[in-house]
Design a protein that fits this description.
Blueprint lengths: L1 H4 L2 H6 L5 H13 L8 H17 L7 H16 L1 H8 L8 H16 L6 H12 L2 H8 L2 H16 L6 H22 L3 H24 L13 H19 L5 H9 L17 H10 L6 H23 L5 H12 L7 H4 L6 H20 L5 H7 L3 H15 L6 H13 L1 H4 L3 H10 L6 H20 L3 H12 L14 H12 L3 H19 L7 H20 L9 H27 L7 H28 L29 H11 L5 H18 L7 H17 L1 H6 L17 H11 L1 H4 L5 H13 L19 H9 L8 H21 L5 H7 L9 H11 L10 H12 L5 E2 L1 H16 L7 H15 L2 E2 L5 H19 L13 H15 L10 H24 L3 H21 L8 H27 L5 H26 L6 H16 L19 H19 L3 H15 L11 H14 L5 H21 L2 H13 L1 H13 L11 H16 L9 H13 L7 H21 L1 H25 L11 H20 L1 H4 L3 H12 L6 H15 L4 H10 L2 H27 L3
Parallel strand pairs: 1-2
């Protein structure tokens, strides 16, 4: 074969050989070991290289396909393992610069044209070279090559390629950048590095970084570029720019350029010609030709922020603040917004403004956060250079308002934070554009606006110039403007900011501001108000502002200086006299055509001021005894009826009547404020000593009626609008919400004085405005606001709601009427007949129910109890054809009402309401549902009904139901209805909704029977009727067992009913038997119930449960049956003889069959916690009944192996193991208590051998690498229970475990349990369990310890070493987990004390224990608390050491360890031994 390849070189160069054959020959020559050529690898690589060079220099004509295959051939060589092995063994492969130049030329070609032929192969070749250090030297040795490559790669990426090539391209860029950064770090010529970066790399890298930052290749749906790779490339670009353009060596050049400093240092050498580095960078940045015009502005904007950050990071230090500032104007000048005023460019789009303002925000934030701007230094040393620049930026921002862009507000905030004088010359325009005239709707923009206003207000508060600020605010409000287009002055955000500001102000400044507002109102608005709608709107804005100031100022009290109180009183009087009354007069006497808008706004304004004045006046009168109200002291005012002179002195009653007529025309702020005035009047009336007089009560009732009535129509109309809670934003749209909030907030005051009709109206509004369904949680970016639904929901969930009995009762009535109306809409019979059969649906008053109680509680003649009449009516309706049928929409309405009912405290209802709701819910539950109701909705409806019935019957009035119905009747009505409806439950029997329904129904039935056993009313009679009804159902079910397609849902219902009967009756009978009071009839009923339940269960077993996975209902039922059966005497466990047509099957055999199947299904059941709990319950009961055990098998052994199978099953998740651990523990505890000695030996042998567990641990520990060790394998959750069982077995002692070898096996298990790489909670848990096993051996197996002390100490030392490892002081991290280590250290100390207590056995080993301790403790630095506990323990071991032992340790230990021992022994002698010697001295 060698001859075949002997002429390979000749054939490759031959012109007669086709290129197809050449490529095949070259390929086989590379991979074949039989082709022997001198320097074969170099020859083949050179052949391919020369072929490509010849082609690209036009010396050779090749097809495109051949050219691409040549590139692929080179790529295969470069990536081959063979080449890598050769290079690793030291062989030299020369690539030649010509190949690298061709690669660079091809990438340049790709970046300039649309041609993509061979791109993947060329990029792969480049990647192969750069990823191999021995080959990459061709690039790193010639710096211009790597620069050219990197530049063209970036330009290629900037063309935004798509597809598979993207990831490959960026991998190459990542490699190239990595190599260039290494070269750059080693570069000794900073000028060259600067020239390379600015001349070749700056522009493409900035464009590429911009594209990467915008997520061009990483957006959802593209997935072409990994986020991590994108992030790494961006970081590399930034590092490259920092290392090239902002080197430390360039600092002097930047200073010379920016600070006009002449550098006299002669050492700068090569830097002398680099005169303007920043100018060079900026020139390259703003050059217009290097990217598409659509990208150019965005690239510049993003690059400006980056360049400033890099400059700042490189050169900022104390003393360079001015230098860092001087860069700012130069870079800012690159942004288009900087040229808006000079060049009068066309307006920018909103997106462009956003981009550039975000950049400006970053620049200003850097200045603010790093104290670049020192006001004094700038003024004294630098001629306010910084101040003038910031003023120019401020003028630009204010002259080009962008109130829709959050960054605009943040830039202004930054300027205000720098120096308030920057914005003060334009303060009025700032307030106008950023607040008064701004239209801000977006939540994020509102937050930014709020932050700006907060900064402005806080700045002027600190300057004590708030009146000056308010003068500007008032000037802006009073400017000529289209007021109708303005937003309300005070929204929730601006109001909150103003409130915080006012709370910090002293009273004198508040009064100054207040007086200023009064003056402006009087001089600029009041004279021109008549008939001017625009002025009316201005007056409302000023009123809102004045209201905010007065409501949020710091209150005066008796400790306030008297001059302030007097001034406050004068200001109040002046406001009433000079502003409020003139406005009222103007409103009452318009003197001209009454404009609707003018009338509304003036009334809003004057009533807001009136309400504000009255509220503040009342507050001052209460808090400040030295304040004398114009309206007189609160305790001395005579109570008038329904008029307002009490609140506003000097205003006649007839005037208020006229004002009420005005406000009744509009749903506006005025009507809201008038209701507030009436409420204030009620509060002042209630503060009178005579408030309980007849006259005062009439006044209170009239005022309450007016408040509720003023907004009744608007509430009836409703609204979906939301209100921010600010008085100034009340409008026709938000008025219903504001009024409802007013009523609800003061319900505790109003409710006592409302008429019954008003209370019912209030309750109907409450029900009507509740949310139809659970509202979705509001977004984090959503301003909190009030709606009718939120307010009503808050009332419903308030703990005060049930305390307000009148409204609570009315609401209950509204709910029942709502349910009744829906039910009546579905009636299919004569309503009059229905009202006789179901009278409680048509009664309007709960008092009627109380009359029923009295009526039906009386026993009629001949011992007949008429309270069975209601039950008979319901039962006859259920058995025949229920006269009410609900369809889909009606059912949804009922479900909405039931959701409301579920929020009420049904367990605390008074008797009349309890009975009414029980009958209502029972009627709903037995109502017939139409075909349009789906199975899922039907189940949800019935589940809700029975859950509410159960909740109701847990209440304090539960027994009142028994006065009108028997428990047995309710039981029969419920089950008859459910069996009739069960055919419509078209869901799987293991569907969660069906299982939940069964659980709820079962709980309700159990509750009924428990109530029967508690009350003991007609006990035997009720249980007999219940059993009789169930027996009929059983008979029908068993008789029809051959019928195909039986109803499984009805079968489950029957099982649940029988199970609950056994569950309630069994414990009750057992308890009464112990007291010798059990009626024989109940014992007999219980036995029959057990037999019938067994029969039904066996039928289910025969029909399909056997051999398949057991249904949850079946497992729960058979567990209950077994528990009830075990409670009976064994003689009752008899054959079922008359229940079936076939040969009877004994319950014993049935239990054994279920037991066998449960054992096999146990791992599968582990996923269902409820099923598993029921299975554990059955297995525990079965184990405790030895007469049921099969003779041919050991139940103990089978159970134990099944539990082991569950724990070792890899399909059972860790979380499931943790959930079922309590149930397994309970079963094992019972097994340990009852098991025989042989059982214990078997369990001990299986566990101690530990093949599964220990081998699993060993395998896992070998396979896990360092990273994987951080996540624990599945057996960690398994080993805990195993160690628990092991400790429990060992505690049985030597009488049970007689073979010492079995005990010794425990040590080998403990040595395989790892104690490292555990989370703190896991470490503490495993440590405790290992300690418990060791302690059990030490205490309970003294004979084993005689020979096993070395093994014991090996295991114990692992615990000691692990505590030292976990308790060492770490370089990083918190001490939050130290508590776990401390607890483990206490256990170690405790074990040392137990060892010391057995001195005879351990004395020989004591010096070795001390030696091991000091050897290990020398390796770590422990936390003092951990060290203290361990030392206390080792001191006890030192007590066992005699003097020769101490001398032995001092001689034999290594030098470093010897010092540790010496220190330990000194402390032992000084603290421990001296202390105990002293104690012994005084011990008798």
């Amino acid at each position: 074969m060698a001859a075949v390849y002997s002429g390979i070189s000749f054939k490759l160069k031959s012109k007669t050989t086709s290129w197809e054959d050449k490529l095949k020959l070259a390929h086989f020559a590379w991979i074949s070991h039989q082709c022997v050529l001198p320097n074969k690898e170099q020859v083949l690589l050179d052949w391919a290289r020369q072929s490509l060079i010849a082609f690209y220099k036009k010396k050779l004509e090749l097809k495109e396909d051949i050219v691409e295959r040549l590139w692929i051939y080179i790529d295969n060589i470069l990536h081959s393992k063979k080449l890598q092995d050769l290079l690793k063994n030291g062989k030299t492969i020369n690539l030649q610069i010509s190949l690298v130049k061709i690669i660079n030329e091809r990438i340049t070609e790709f970046s300039l044209s649309e041609s993509r032929r061979s791109m993947c192969a060329v990029l792969s070749c480049c990647q192969g070279i750069l990823s191999t250090p021995a080959l990459a030297v061709i690039y790193t040795a010639r710096q211009e090559l790597i620069v050219a490559l990197l530049s063209q790669l970036c330009w290629l990426a900037c063309r935004q390629p798509e597809g598979a090539v993207v990831a490959q391209l960026f991998e190459v860029i990542h490699l190239a950048l990595g190599h260039y950064l290494l070269i750059q770090q080693q570069q000794v010529n900073p000028r060259r590095a600067f020239g390379e970066v600015t001349g070749h790399l700056l522009q493409p890298c900035l464009v590429l970084r911009h594209l990467l930052s915008g997520g061009t290749w990483t957006q959802t749906g593209q997935g072409q570029l990994r986020q991590a790779l994108s992030r790494d490339v961006r970081s590399q670009i930034e590092a490259m720019l920092r290392g090239g353009a902002f080197q430390p060596e360039l600092l002097s050049s930047y200073k010379e350029e920016l600070l006009d400093q002449q550098q006299g240092d002669t050492k700068i050498g090569a830097m002398k010609n680099l005169l303007a580095p920043l100018d060079t960078v900026i020139t390259r940045l703003v050059d217009a030709g290097y990217c598409e015009p659509s990208l150019h502005a965005a690239v510049i904007a993003n690059s400006v922020a980056l360049l400033y950050k890099l400059f700042f990071d490189s050169y900022f230090k104390e003393g360079n603040q001015l230098l860092c500032f001087q860069v700012l104007p130069r870079l800012f000048g690159c942004l288009r917004i900087s040229r808006l005023q000079e060049e009068r460019l066309k307006g920018l789009a909103a997106s462009d403004w956003t981009t550039e303002l975000l950049v400006l925000e970053q620049l200003l934030s850097s200045v603010t956060n790093n104290n670049i701007y020192n006001i004094a230094a700038d003024r004294i040393r630098h001629g306010e250079a910084q101040f003038h620049f910031y003023r120019r930026v401020a003028e630009l921002l204010i002259n080009h308002s962008q109130a829709s862009v959050p960054a605009w507000f943040r830039c202004l905030k930054a300027l205000m934070s720098l120096n308030h004088l920057i914005l003060e010359p334009d303060l009025d325009d700032l307030l106008a554009s950023a607040w008064i005239d701004a239209e801000v709707t977006d939540f994020r923009t509102k937050k930014a606006q709020e932050a700006l206003l907060h900064t402005v207000f806080q700045t002027y508060v600190k300057l004590r110039q708030v009146p000056r600020l308010f003068e500007e605010i008032l000037g802006v409000i009073c400017r000529p403007a289209a007021e109708a287009l303005r937003q309300p002055v005070l929204t929730s955000g601006s109001s909150r900011v103003l409130c915080e500001c006012l709370l910090d102000l002293p009273p004198s400044q508040i009064l100054d501001t207040w007086s200023l507002m009064l003056e402006k109102f009087q001089s600029l608005v009041l004279p021109y108000l008549r008939g001017d709608a625009d002025m009316a709107l201005k007056s409302l804005s000023l009123s809102s502002l004045l209201h905010c100031v007065m409501f949020n100022m710091r209150s005066l009290d008796s400790s306030t200086p008297l001059p302030i109180i007097r001034r406050m009183q004068c200001t109040m009087e002046r406001m009433l006299r000079e502003l409020v009354r003139p406005l009222l007069d103007l409103l009452l006497d318009p003197q001209g055509p009454e404009l609707e808008l003018w009338l509304q706004k003036v009334s809003d304004s004057v009533l807001l001021l009136s309400y504000t004045w009255a509220q503040v006046d009342a507050m001052l009168s209460i808090n400040c005894s030295q304040y004398h109200s114009v309206s007189g002291a609160l305790t001395d005012v005579a109570v008038e009826i329904s008029h307002l002179p009490l609140l506003l002195p000097g205003v006649e009653t007839c005037h208020w009547k006229k004002i009420e007529k005005f406000t009744a025309q509009f749903d506006s702020l005025g009507r809201y404020c008038l209701a507030q005035l009436y409420l204030q009047k009620m509060k002042r009336t209630l503060m009178q000593t005579s408030f309980q007089s007849e006259e005062a009560l009439r006044s209170l009732k009239c005022d309450a009626a007016y408040i509720l009535g003023s907004g009744r129509e608007s509430l009836n109309r409703g609204t979906t609008a939301s209100w921010d809670g600010q008085v100034g934003t009340v409008s026709a749209l938000t008025y219903p919400v504001a009024h409802w909030h007013l009523v609800v907030s003061n319900l505790t005051i109003l409710i006592s004085y409302l008429s019954p009709d008003d209370v019912r109206s209030l309750a109907s509004v409450l029900l009507r405005t509740l949310p139809v369904s659970k509202a979705q949680e509001g977004s984090a970016e959503e301003e909190p606001s009030l709606t009718l639904e939120k307010i009503s929901s808050a009332v419903l969930h308030s703990p005060l709601f049930p305390e307000m009995q009148s409204i609570h009762s009315a609401f209950l009535m509204c709910l029942t009427e709502g349910c009744t109306s829906v039910l009546c809409s579905g009636t299919q019979r004569d309503p009059s007949l229905l009202s006789e059969q179901l009278p409680w649906l048509f009664e309007k008053d709960h008092l009627v129910v109380a009359l029923w109680e009295n009526k039906f509680a009386k026993v009629g003649p001949e011992g007949v109890e008429p309270k069975g009449e209601i039950a008979q009516n319901l039962l006859s309706l259920v058995k025949s054809d229920f006269p009410i049928q609900l369809e889909g929409e009606q059912l949804e309405s009922i479900l909405g009402l039931l959701e409301v009912i579920s929020t009420l405290q049904l367990d605390s209802l008074l008797t009349p309401y309890h009975v009414r709701y029980f009958l209502l819910l029972l009627s709903l539950a037995i109502t017939k549902l139409g075909s349009s109701c789906s199975s899922s909705v039907t189940l949800k409806f019935l589940t809700t009904c029975y859950r509410l019935l159960g909740y109701l019957q847990r209440g304090k009035s539960a027994r009142s139901v028994l006065k009108i119905m028997y428990v047995s009747d309710i039981f029969e009505i419920t089950l008859t209805s459910l069996f009739k409806a069960s055919g419509r439950f078209l869901v799987n029997v293991d569907d969660p909704s069906w299982l939940e329904f069964l659980q709820v129904v079962g709980a309700f039935l159990e509750q009924l029977m428990q109530m029967l056993t508690q009350t003991k009313l007609s006990l035997v009679l009720n249980f007999r009727k219940i059993f009789g009804f169930l027996r009929e159902l059983c008979t029908e079910a068993i008789a029809g067992k051959r019928v195909k397609n039986q109803n499984p849902w009805g079968q489950h219902l029957l099982l649940v009913s029988l199970t609950k009967l056994c569950q309630v009756l069994g414990p009750f009978v057992r308890e009464r038997k112990q007291q010798r009071e059990a009626p024989e009839a109940l014992c007999e009923l219980l036995q029959k119930a057990i037999l019938h339940t067994g029969a039904v269960l066996q039928q289910c077993w025969a029909q399909g449960a056997r051999g398949q996975r057991l249904p949850p209902v079946f497992i729960a039922s058979v567990s209950t049956l077994l528990e009830a059966d075990v409670g009976q005497h064994s003689r009752h466990r008899t054959e079922i003889s008359t229940m079936t047509d076939e040969v009877p099957l004994s319950l014993t055999a049935f239990y054994q069959s279920v037991y066998s199947q449960l054992l096999s299904e146990l791992p599968a059941l582990a996923g269902d916690r409820q099923c598993f709990q029921a299975a554990m319950r059955f297995l525990t009961l079965f184990f405790l009944a030895p007469e049921l055990h099969p003779k041919e098998d050991s139940v103990f052994t089978s159970l134990f192996h099944s539990v082991r199978k569950v724990l070792a099953d890899p399909a059972v998740p860790v979380g499931v193991i943790q959930d079922i651990e309590p149930y397994l523990g309970a079963l094992l505890t019972q097994m340990l208590e009852v098991g025989t000695a042989e059982d214990f030996r078997m369990m001990m042998r299986c566990i101690l051998q530990g093949l599964d567990i220990s081998n699993m641990w060993k395998a896992n520990l070998q396979l896990l690498n360092r990273e994987a060790c951080q996540e624990q394998p599945v057996p960690l959750a398994v080993v805990g229970p195993i160690l628990d069982v092991l400790a429990a077995l060992l505690r049985q002692g030597e009488e049970t475990i007689r073979n010492p070898h079995h005990v010794s096996l425990a040590f080998s298990i403990l040595l395989t349990v790892p104690l490292d790489h555990l989370k703190p909670s896991e470490y503490g848990s495993i440590f405790l369990r290992v300690h418990n096993v060791l302690f059990s051996i030490l205490q309970c197996h003294p004979k084993v310890m005689l020979k096993a002390i070395p093994s014991f100490l090996n295991c114990f030392n692992r615990l000691v070493y692990s505590v030292m490892h976990e308790g060492r002081q770490k370089d990083k991290g918190s001490t939050d987990d130290l508590s776990v280590v401390l607890e483990c250290a206490r256990l170690v100390e405790r074990m040392y004390s137990h060892i010391a207590a057995r001195a005879e056995e351990f004395t020989v080993f004591s010096p070795f224990m001390v030696a091991q301790y000091v050897t290990e403790v020398q390796k770590v630095t422990l936390y003092p608390a951990v060290k203290g506990l361990l030392q206390e323990g080792i001191y006890l071991i030192l007590d066992l050491c005699i003097e020769p032992d101490v001398q032995f340790l001092r001689v034999s230990l290594q030098p470093g360890v010897r010092d540790i021992f010496k220190e330990l022994h000194n402390d032992y002698m000084k603290y421990h031994k001296a202390k105990h010697e002293g104690e012994r001295r005084y011990t008798a």
